[in-house]
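Appendix C. Worked example: Protein-glutamate methylesterase/protein-glutamine glutaminase
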Amino acid sequence: MINVLVVDDSALIRRVLTEIINSDPNMEVIGTAADPYIARDKIKALHPDVITLDIEMPKMDGIKFLKNLMRLRPMPVVMISTLTQKGAPATLEALEIGAVDYVGKPSADKPELLTEYANEILQKIRAAATANVARLEQQASGLTTRSATPKRAGVSPSGKLIAIGASTGGTEAIRELLLLMPLDSPPIVITQHIPPVFSASFAKRLDSMLPLTVHEAVDGDKIIPGHVYIAPGDLHMEVKLKGSHYYCRVFEGERVNLHKPSVEVLFNSITQQCAKQTVGVMLTGMGADGAKAMLRMKEAGSYNIVQDQATSVVWGMPGEAVKLGAADAISPLKSIPDAIIKRLKRMV
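Step 2, the predicted output written as C-alpha cells:
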C-alpha cells in the first residue's frame, strides 16, 4: 500500500486527487493539507510514502517548501503543476531541487480528459514510491560531482552522433551529463518525455547553463557538431540523413509506447540511418520506451551506454534495456560523458 499526502490550497483539487488516488486498491490518501505548515505537521505524524505538492500556495510556495523538505527529510514528491509556459520554469526548478516528477492540474473545462489524467497521476505516484531517494537526496544537497567542462577533448565529430533517451528524472540527468561534454562533441539528439509547453523552457534553461548550444528541435534543422537538439513536447523526432548531412524530422503522429515524443521513434531512426556512427545513451526513466529500439540499434552497429541503477531516479527504461541485452556498458551518470568520449575516439 502506497500512503499519499495531498498538499494543495484548493479544496476541489484535494477532493479530486483524493478520489483518484483512493480508486487504486494499492494506494490510499492518508491525509491532506491546505498549506505547507499543515503539511509539515502531517508529514511528521503520518509518515507518507509519497507527497503530491502544489507549486502555488499561500503562506509558503511549493518551491520553498520542497527545498526545506529535501534538505531536512528527502522523500518522493510529485508536483501538481499548471502546465503553461509561465509555470514551466518553476516546475523545472522543482525537478532540479529533487521532485521525482510532475503532473498537470486537472482541467474543469475538459472533463473528458479526467480518465487520462487519473491514469497519469496514478502511474507517476506508483513510480515515485519506488524512486531512488538516495539519488534525490544527493541531487537536493548538491553533492553530485561536477567538474569544469573541458574546452576540447580531441574528438573528431565528423559523421558521428550521440542519441539520448530519458524520462522520469531525465531533465536533471541530461543537464548533468551535458555539463561534462566537450565543446567538440558530435551533435547530440535527445528525446525526453515532456509536455509541449515545457520543452522550449527546458531547452532554453539548458542553453543558458551549457557551453554547448541547445535548441528545441524544429523540422528540417541541420544537425551540426557542438549543438544539442531536444524533441518538442507532443511531437516525435527522427534523424534523417540527406546527402552527407543529418537533419531533424519533427512530426505529428500516434503515441508510441504511450509517449509523444517517444524514445522508440528516435532510436528506430538511428537504426535505419546511422547506427554505426552513433553512441546511444539510455538515462533514468519510468517504463520501457526505447529499450527494444536500443537493442535494434546495437544489432545495427551502435555502441550503447545505459545509466546504472544506483544513480537513476527510476531504473525503468535503463533496466529494461539491460534486460534485453541492449547495453554495451552500464555506467554511473557522472562517468557516462567520459565513456562517450572514449568510444567516439575509437570510432572511424
